[in-house]
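Data availability (excerpt). The following record was deposited with the supplementary files.
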Amino acid sequence: MHWLHRLGPEAQSLNEIHSKFLQMIQDGRHIFDAAANALLGGTSPQVIRNDLFETDRRINRTEQEIRRQIVVHGSIHGAATFPALLVMMSLVKDAERIGDYAKNIFDLTKVGLDLEAGPREAALVPLKDKISKLLVRAHGLFERQDTAKAREFLSEVVELEDECDAAVEELLRLSGRNTSPAVLTYRYFKRVISHIGNVVTSLVVPLDKLDYFDEPRDKQ
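Predicted structure:
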């Protein structure tokens, strides 16, 4: 929590905001796992439905609590903490969006996904597991404010985003079968990956660069 410690006495009340944000990341991993396993892992959607939507509501409540605390903290401590507060205001939206995309993934259980239809569909299962591990690692990196390993992490994020793009391009070129569920799954997976990347990017880029991690990149 180096960026908190540098603030001195004002950091005390920011610690609670920091802890609540970490809980949002944990809940994000839980809701992603639940939704993705319902779609790809054979878990009954009805079994996890209530837990999934309650977790999403908890994420939303935590986001609202953090925003209220940010307003209170800023009004008390003033300009000295504005950079940290602006960072956190941006990051809680990334954490909240992970829950939203998990719900989108869960909605795909209504149409189903045939993992035996082709190699790209089958590749979604290991990709799901990689994303789940990314969420765990992002939580740890942010908790420790580990800038040394953040760049390596972000390189992996870029590789997974490119994997999703390549899969979508390949699926869209296929004819003779419905690839829409797989395309949407890859799209939603990529959005989750991008929001994870935005969280970890906060460890290594200035405030004005936040939210630009997932901008299109020039490919050689």
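Summary of structural features: Residues 79 and 173 are 53 Å apart (CA to CA).
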